[in-house]
Amino acid sequence: MCGVDDLSVELRKMRLRWFGHVRRAEGGVLSEVEETLLVQVWCFKEIINIGYSVYRMHGLPWFRSLSWWFSITSNYFFYGESVADYFSVISSKSDIMRWLIAYHRFTSFTMYIIGFVWFVLSLKKKYYMRQFSLFAWTHVALLIVVSQSYFIIFNIFHGMIWFIVPVSMIVINDVMAYMFGFFLGKTPLIQLSPKKTWEGFIGGGISTILLGMILSYVLCQYPYFVCPMEYSEAEDALKYSCDASPIFRPQEYSLPETLANFSALLGWRKTVTMYPFVFHSVALSLFSSVIGPFGGFFASGFKRAFKIKDFGDVIPGHGGMMDRFDCQYLMATFVTVYINTFISETSPQKLLQKVYMLKPEQQLQLYNMLQDSLIARGILQP
């Protein structure tokens, strides 16, 4: 068992080794992950402060501490899952990290149980209802903020395009809906937001689809945006270079018969070359323009329910951090679901990362079993 000083030195070396790997990655993702985590912590702080004010629990000392303990526990669990999936090879080079990954879920559960027991011991007479309300408030905040930020990290790891395009679509929709509503808006859309109009809603949606397709077409041409984060055993580093997935390679599509005939009359081609991702971007655009605004409506209803104007005041004239990211979190969840449903597939690279985590004798056993199977099926010669 190493002493405290030895452990501290080992953790410092391990941190430098990790960050060195990520910094050496082409275009690395560390800054994006750090920024996402910072935004998440700030949004969580704003929601917890509202709960603390609404229920007037200033006489009970443990609510803030418990809330942040559950936040740390949730982050440990979610980001530990990311470490196991994306940094497993690097982590396997450290005995401490190998142990933490092996017992990650048990450790997460233990941390949650500590918080649960802590909460029960903090209960006081005459305050039970308020304390349980705040306990539920904290868990809802974790669901809305912490889990959603994990989805954003998940999207980034699959390629920066899955982060930049959805975020941009929300911004485009918000701006264009305001512009159309300001100049053409006459018909109210929803009571929760009296300034929102049908004209702005429809105009913003059409603009989001068109501009989203253009943005997607441009970004598909750059490996940095389309390549997922992968570990290179040869370079011993994380990288953002790859052979682009088929959805990021130009493909030729035949036009519908009517359009093809019209195109022929004009002397144009009957086919069009396009990146398949551009068509996927239409689905993202539709969600960001039709469902995305409801994240803002939900936030508006929440603030009206508790009679507050903004979640915070960190951004002058715009309220708090949560006021700016209420729609982004909803969008991040959809993108994650979309990737898992229509895009993701098991790749040899991902399987190989799992194999690297096995002990040498287990790797050899897997190799022999795979070799025997390939020979039995006639794929390899004995």
UniProtKB/TrEMBL annotation:
Q: Where does the UniProt annotation locate this protein?
A: Membrane
Q: How does it sit in the membrane?
A: Multi-pass membrane protein
- UniProt GO MF annotations: phosphatidate cytidylyltransferase activity
**EC supergroup of this enzyme:** transferase
Coiled coil ranges: none
Per the record, GO CC terms? endoplasmic reticulum membrane
Q: Which domain of life is it from?
A: Eukaryota
Q: What is its main location?
A: membrane
Which GO biological process annotations does it have? CDP-diacylglycerol biosynthetic process
What name does this protein carry?
A: Phosphatidate cytidylyltransferase
Gene it is expressed from: CdsA
